[in-house]
Design goal:
Elements lengths: L4 E4 L5 E4 L1 H4 L5 H14 L59 H17 L3 E4 L3 H9 L6 E4 L3 H7 L5 E4 L6 H6 L2 E5 L3 H8 L4
Parallel strand pairs: 3-6, 4-5, 4-6
Antiparallel strand pairs: 1-2
Helix pairs in contact: 4-5
Length: 199
Amino acid sequence: MAEKKETKTKKEEKVILNPLVWEVPYSEELITQVLYVYNSNERKGSAKQKGKGEVSGGGKKPWRQKGTGRARSGSSRSPLWVGGGVTFPTSGRNFEKKINRKMAQKATRIMLSERLRNKELEFDKLTLTKAKGLRKGEVKRNLVIVSGDKEISLALRNAKKINIVDPLKLNAKHLVWAREVLVDESIINMLEKRLLNEK
């Protein structure tokens, strides 16, 4: 089993980190694949075409059935006519894709490691006072705060460029969006266990 590494927080207090979560080599291929699935699953698929019965108008028969010398026609909204409906309309397309859970977890570990290597991730003991201070101050870069505290989440839910994420829901897309990550020290063990499938 890999030995846990010690790192220091803002207050120079040591935090024990599991290298299986915080020292994972970067893999662009895996991150790209996981993000493709996440983005696909967010598509609504609400595009729709109208069929013959859905296009407005066309209620009256254009001309009588016989005697005109022209082909019989029952509606000016037939798919054969300009302005008519679509022959085979499609609606409600499903763009949902699946990805292996271990792949998704590894992608999250990769992005946590990458942010830590680039010194874009910090650990801190988050309090409600500090959260309110972040809200009042100007956050210039996208900031993800990983915390399970509901009061902190409520205090920052409408703050610009700040995204509060529960440690049980954190994924690679949150970390790709972020340019700075702030992790609450109290949830480090919970986050590591979740990403390593430990009970």
